[in-house]
TrEMBL record:
InterPro entries listed in its UniProt record: Amidase, Amidase_dom, AS_sf
Pfam families registered for this protein in UniProt: Amidase
Protein name: Amidase
Domain annotation Amidase: ranges: 30-422
Stored SUPFAM superfamilies: Amidase signature (AS) enzymes
GO MF: catalytic activity
Length: 432
């Protein structure tokens, strides 16, 4: 089994409670994270460089303490350090988006989700590494379980930063599998809410029809805390059965995974714990769906970059340039087909749930363990249908594969059932 000195438990819910209660002063907290950062960051490379990072954080922490002297009045994420994927605009930080294109090209007002995090009391640790424009061209970040393996992408730095305990919380995005897959590869919890439930305003978009804002933490309880702080109209009172009825989507989709033996062991563990698990054929043409989704996002990224690509094409890396050129050739009719199919697929998946008495789908969070090498960020096939349909998804750590690298279990619910999904995921995650 792979072991690593870089992994460190950092549960968001517990850290937030200690900071709010005053059990841990902000100064002591920053000293702890500064020591951790100095030890880990040079090898993992999860963050973009930032001059005087901790001096600035101490100034912001002092302002936070002055604003909230009363522990009972402190907001939910008081003093929590957050990593921000470098396609989100943050006041005081440039946005590089993982590219050599000049950052002033992307300048814009602070992202809505970053502002919400600050309002909830969070402190911004810095920008985390992203693949170029959140697509396929990787950055320098390593997988903390094995430095020779990818952490996944495109939210590479966010996943690795949380897995190493350099921050308890990070944000990323998912256009196909860029939150769930890296979370699984790095052995942490990833959450992709229902499409649009976290406001994406202020991001350098790849595809406005597919981009979801995602969250990373080490514990589902902490994820619940963070989600409730950044999602409008969060309904804590929404009731959910303690043990949901689960479904395995049988067919071509599931057969894409190469760790099916491990997945079956996860299923059996849930059955042994008292969960009802049904096996439901998922009759979706996966290959056709991949092509349709790719055409849709390619057309939209070509639109987003129409001006930039014309001027800076020579600075774009090969795979990014290729997807933009592909998008330039996608017809308006094909683009609309992709956009319309999102709701069609959602209705199909939810009708299967209703007809079969299913609360949530379970499947592998990735096709297998994080692959060797830093030239690829892995395969997002297991995330595609749920992302295309805009359904909420969570991955929880669920053991290790043959190489000793983390595996994740992906849990997906009906649209807007995010609150229930996180409740279920906390119980389900306790079984592994």
């Amino acid at each position: 089994m792979v072991t690593s000195n870089w992994i460190h438990t950092e549960r968001l819910a517990n850290r937030a409670r200690m900071l709010r209660d005053g059990e841990e002063p902000l100064r002591a907290m920053l000293n702890h994270f500064q020591d951790r950062f100095k030890e880990i960051e040079p090898r993992i490379q999860a963050f973009l460089p930032k001059e005087d990072r901790f001096r600035q954080l101490r100034e912001e922490a002092a302002e936070l303490e002055a604003t909230y002297p009363d522990a009972l009045a402190r907001p939910p994420l008081y003093g929590i350090l957050v990593g921000i994927k470098d396609i989100f605009h943050v006041e005081g930080f440039e946005t590089f988006a993982g590219t050599e294109v000049p950052p002033e090209v992307f300048a814009g007002p602070e992202s809505a989700v970053v502002t919400k995090l600050k309002e909830a009391g969070a402190l911004i640790m810095g920008k985390t590494v992203t693949t170029e424009f959140a697509f396929l061209e990787p950055g320098p970040t390593r997988n903390p379980y094995d430095l020779k393996r990818t952490p996944g992408g495109s939210s590479s730095g966010s996943a690795a930063a949380v897995a190493t305990g350099m921050v308890p919380l990070a944000i990323g995005t998912q256009t196909v599998g860029s939150t769930i897959r890296p979370a699984a590869y790095c052995g942490i919890v990833g959450f992709k809410p229902s499409f649009g439930r976290i406001d994406p305003t202020g991001v350098v978009f790849f595809s406005r029809s597919a981009d979801h804002v995602g969250l990373f933490a080490q514990d589902v309880a902490g994820m619940h805390l963070a989600a409730s702080a950044v999602i409008d109209n969060w309904q804590e009172e929404r009731l959910a059965p303690e043990k949901p009825v689960l479904a395995v989507p049988e067919g071509a989709y599931l057969q894409q995974a190469n760790a099916l033996e491990a997945f079956e062991a996860q299923v059996q563990a849930l059955i042994a714990a008292g969960y009802v698990v049904k096996r439901i054929p998922l009759e979706v043409d996966i290959d056709a769906l991949k092509e349709l989704h790719l055409d849709m996002i390619a057309a939209e990224v070509a639109q987003e970059h129409a001006g930039w690509f014309g001027e800076y094409e020579h600075l774009y890396r090969p795979q990014t340039a290729e997807i933009i050129r592909r998008g330039q050739g996608v017809s308006e009719e094909r683009l609309e087909e992709g956009r319309n199919n999102r709701l069609t697929l959602r209705e199909h998946l939810e009708s299967l749930m209703r007809d079969n008495g299913i609360d949530a789908w379970i499947s592998p969070a990735a096709t297998g363990e994080a692959p060797l090498g830093l030239h690829t960020t892995g395969d997002s096939s297991m995330n595609l249908p749920w992302t295309h349909a805009g359904l909420p998804a969570v991955t929880v750590p669920a053991g290790v594969g043959d190489a000793g690298m983390p595996l994740g279990l992906q849990i997906c619910a009906a649209f807007n059932m995010d609150e229930a999904l996180l409740q279920w995921s906390e119980y389900i995650g306790e079984e592994f």
